[in-house]
Amino acid sequence: MKKILVATDKPFAPVAVNQIKDIVEKAGFEFSLLEKYTEKSQLINAVNAANAVIIRSDIIDNEVITSSGNLEIVVRAGAGYDNVDLAAATAKKVVVMNTPGQNSNAVAELVFGMMVYHARKFYNGTAGTELREKTLGIHAYGNVGKFVATIAKGFGMKVYAFDPFVSKELIEKDGVTAVDTVEELYSKSQYISLHIPANAETKQSINHKLLSLMPKGAVLVNTARKEVIHEADMIKVMEQRGDFAYLSDIAPDNKADFGKFEGRYFFTPKKMGAQTGEANVNAGVAAANQIVAFFKNGDTTFQVNK
Ligand code: 3PG
């Protein structure tokens, strides 16, 4: 009998775990659960006993993959799979999938949660500002970017987007102004919401040159990955510009260095973008269904290491 493991350092909501278990058991497979593990060895041991594993931001590196005996498939219940060593998986013929779009609305809502929290001075009782009629630049127009655009229009913001992989026509169909270059996006937008993946091209790409282009009262909102920010450059810009703010769902490596920018930064204590019951159910159920379809019909629709 195939063994399907859910291995999550940051657990899904119980309602999602129950639905995943149900799908796995109804398909005739065995379900197991490893949550809030503290040692990598716990993950290695659990994965070693499984044929399939559902993860979130859990690190599936070369060691986890190569020490596994029967592992056939890893599904990242979420969008970004930079936490999985794809080369190691491919070498061991382990299929890796993600569940694109399933947690996107949750991430998009948090973008606005952080923007309002900052604009209203962290609710400290003094007068803040509104989002209405401010400019917002969406950097990468994928699943999350689209939800961000919809919500921004509800707030009455003027919305721009840049994405070299999405046609201008598709972006403009949503009532969003597509710009030609990333520099144009940053020059036009008081708020920037980042939705690029972390890969060799994008790591540290949000640098001094780009950040300096942002207009007065600039706010960079990062619900993507900390690795895409050039942290030293971000600190330099914030030192040079007292009007620049950085809001992130992923604390930077040197969080303490931001202490001197009081009122101009906010970091969630734990990555919270996808942490809603709805997103957990959507992504977890999709992951479980994808594993069942893979074992029963060889379905590899969402494979990312083809
Ligand atoms: C994703 O890539 O889907 C998000 O960053 C969510 O990550 P999480 O599942 O670890 O919250």
Could you walk me through the main structural features you see in this protein, from its secondary elements to its overall organization?
The protein is an alpha/beta fold. It folds into 2 domains: about 5-100 and about 275-295, Rossmann fold (3-Layer(aba) Sandwich); about 105-265, NAD(P)-binding Rossmann-like Domain (Rossmann fold, 3-Layer(aba) Sandwich). The protein is about 35% helix and about 15% strand. It has 11 helices and 12 strands. The chain has helices at about 15-25, 40-50, 60-65, 85-90, 105-120, 145-155, 170-175, 180-190, 210, 230-240, 275-295; strands spanning about 5-10, 30-35, 50-55, 75, 95-100, 135-140, 160, 175-180, 190-195, 220, 245-250, 265. Helix 1 packs parallel to helix 11 (about 275-295) and helix 5 (about 105-120) crosses helix 6. The longest helix has 21 residues, at about 275-295. It starts with a strand and ends in a 9-residue tail after the last helix. 3-phosphoglyceric acid binds next to loops.
Quote the distance from N terminus to C terminus: 26 Å
If classified by CATH, what would the architecture of the largest domain be?
3-Layer(aba) Sandwich
Global Rg: 20 Å
Shape: elongated
Low-confidence stretches: none
Largest sheet entry = 7 strands, parallel
Strand order of the largest sheet: 8-7-6-9-10-11-12
Ions, cofactors and other ligands present here are: 3-phosphoglyceric acid
Query: CATH fold name of the largest domain, please?
Result: Rossmann fold
Strand runs, count: 12
Q: H/E element string?
A: EHEHEHEHEHEHEHEHEHEHEEH
SS element count, helices: 11
Please, how many domains? 2
CATH class of the largest domain: Alpha Beta
Strand content: 15-25%
